[in-house]
Amino acid sequence: MVEKSALTFVDSDGHVLEHPTGMLDYAPAEYRDRIWHIETDADGTEWLVFDHTRTPANFASVSGTAGMSEEDCARAMAGQLRYTEVRPAAYNAKARLEDMAADHIDKSVLYPTQLLGIQGVDDIDFAEVQCRAYNDWLSDHVSEAKGKLFGAALLPQQDIERAAAELRRAAKLPGMVAAFIRPNPTADWKPFNNRVYDPLWKAACDTGLPLGLHPFLDARLPGACKGMHFDRIHDAPVRGAFDENMPSQDIGIDNIYFSQALSNPFDMMASLAFLVAGGVCERFPELRLIFLEANGGWVVPWLERLDHHAHVPLFRPDVPDLKKDPSEYFRRQCWISFDADESLLAFTANSPLVGADRIVWASDYPHPDAKFPGTTDELYEHIKTLSDEQQRQIAGKSSEALYGI
To answer: What pLDDT was estimated at residue 243?
Structure first.
């Protein structure tokens, strides 16, 4: 068994909180008043300003409370913790490196937090400008970390051509090693195997950047939350954070538990099915895909089901582009992310449909559900029964190969 100290741990899906004012310097003058930022009144009250809205910023602070005291977490949930009082590492690269060292994490790839929802913004011109400002800021942010932090580019997925163009631009920025999309059929409910998305897949292949499919608490896009009405389950508002004080914009949900627990894996399973069985991986063999923040224990039975269907003569006419078993495309082009405490980690690593070299792990730091410190301890407990090489792959080698870091 490999000692934990001998393993290199790479966080495949960490998060950065949007800097209070950092993106303003990267925005065109005509959009500067709409770009995501925090404004502070003379009395110290903080306001989150984004796309013509100005809402209390305190409700956004809960996203940066990993490792904070129960008292501070309670203050954040109650809207009493200021955004600038979150854990410093949430948007400070030097502090982030200190927290990574405390948790024995060697490298981390950063995805956004509130801007995970940029695809729900109606004004595509503004969404594109916001993506560019964020990506430029993030590139400079990760560059402060001397090869320890890396970025995943934000794309205006509402418009596939513009998303492809921004992917190509962002790929040239230092420190950017991936781009992310939501696991939602943004082109008028058309599933991902529809050729309307081909410019995006082509751009990912041409640039060599993997695409991370990352969900978000948001019912404004087509998908499970909107289609199955997980967005509104209460007869009356029950959470202050989902009433008129919702930060940034109304994302269309009245609950977190069901909208996230159900929508994340449902959308991810649907996306995987259309990508591996719908011909996308066949048409784009260089495309690399990462399925994030929806747990991973479902992937083996899901691939078994897709493989089984592929061999039923009655179903074959519906997948004319399928030349291999869906699981073969997964093994060739896909990675699945696990939380550190998932009991099916070892089972999936030993499955011939997936394997340890297709498994990455995520901390979700600095979000409130992140275990800090202790994430790598937890992960080690769940992989230590595996072979030495499997442990090395899951801890870091798979992520290093995937992201090229």
So the answer is: 43
